[in-house]
Amino acid sequence: MCDKYFTLHDLPQEDRPRERLKEVGVDNLSIQELLALVVEKGRKGKSVLSVSQNLLARFGNLAKMKEASIEELQEVDGIGFATACKLKAALKLGEKALSKHNKFDYQITTPKDVFELLKNDMGNKKKEHFKILSLTTRKKLISIDDISIGILDSSLAHPREIFKPAIQNSAASIILVHNHPSGDPTPSKDDIKMTERLIEAGKIIGIEIDDHVIISDNLFASLRSDPKTSRLWRK
User: Fold this and answer.
1) Backbone torsions φ then ψ of 146, nearest 5 degrees
2) Which of 83, 122, 154, 229 would give a disulfide with 179, using CB separation of 3.0 to 4.6 Å?
3) CB-CB contact of 209 with 172 (8 Å)
4) Do 90 and 116 fall into the same domain?
5) Both 186 and 126 in a single domain?
6) Residue at 36 is within a domain
7) Distance CA 28, CA 101 (A)
8) Considering the domain boundaries, does residue 150 fall inside one?
9) Are residues 122 and 93 part of one domain?
10) 221: enclosing H helix or E strand
11) What is the pLDDT of residue 174?
């Protein structure tokens, strides 16, 4: 068995991803080649392109690869801790490039605006993520803050944690957002109970809750727009 670790330079020049990127542009590289640029080196007896192909074979697509843990990435032959960290960072950068998190003048007037803002960040999560959007009086985004990760239960959504970033940002109102990994954005009884509790807390604090939007892979639901739950805002 060969003891040499194969790098990008060991590939034939016409197959080297860096040279191909320079020659044909990044848009014309395959996913395997793009991964090879991040991975950079193979293992003993296996090229970097082979290791990249193993990654794709193990996870199936980039979305599943992005959700994989460091430990799961390291299960792929040829992927060590440092390379797994590089992969996580590269995939996260790609996610952030598609999001509008840095557009603090982004105006939110509809539930669809919330969905478009966060679908790439939350739509494919395996666990429930709960965030709040803090808004100005003109409904422009001030910040997006993570509140919790895991099973979202009404008893765990304490007003202190939820309103703290809104108070710090002098927000006029907030929007509650969480995802349903099941793919069905229909609000649960706990979702409704929690929303009702937080609306009442917001009245006391003086920060209105504009909506509670639930996101799935390609669907969303707005509790304020739903006739069954819009009553919560009319109390």
Assistant:
1) -80, 130
2) 122
3) no
4) no
5) yes
6) yes
7) 28
8) yes
9) no
10) strand 220-222
11) 96
* Nearest partner of 121 among 145, 142, 153, judged by Cα: 145
What is the pTM (predicted TM-score) of this model?
Answer: 0.61
One domain for residues 75 and 115: no
- Residue 3 confidence class, pLDDT cut points 50, 70, 90: very low
Report residue 222 CA to chain centroid gap: 19
Q: Are residues 145 and 31 in the same domain?
A: no
Query: pLDDT at position 87, please?
Result: 92
Domain match, 94 and 134 both: no
pLDDT digits (tens, 9 = 90+) for 17-75: 788 888 888 888 888 888 888 888 877 767 888 888 889 899 888 888 888 899 999 99
Q: Which residues contact 72 (CB under 8 A, 6 or more apart)?
A: none
Residue type, 28: N
Using the Cα atoms of residue 111, residue 112, residue 113 and residue 118 in order, give the sign of their dihedral. positive
Q: What is the structure's pLDDT at 230?
A: 94
Residues 89 and 116 in one domain: no
Domain assignment of residue 63, given as a range: 5-98
- H/E run at residue 145: strand 141-149
User: Distance of CA 197 to CAs 5, 57, 65, 134, 135, Å?
Assistant: 59, 46, 37, 18, 20
What's the CATH number where 145 sits? 3.40.140.10
**What does the pLDDT look like over 131-182, one tens digit per residue?**
999 999 999 999 888 888 876 554 456 788 889 999 998 999 999 999 998 8
Q: What pLDDT does 1 receive?
A: 42
End-to-end Cα separation, the chain, in angstroms: 74
Candidates 124, 129, 149, 145; CA nearest to 68 is: 124
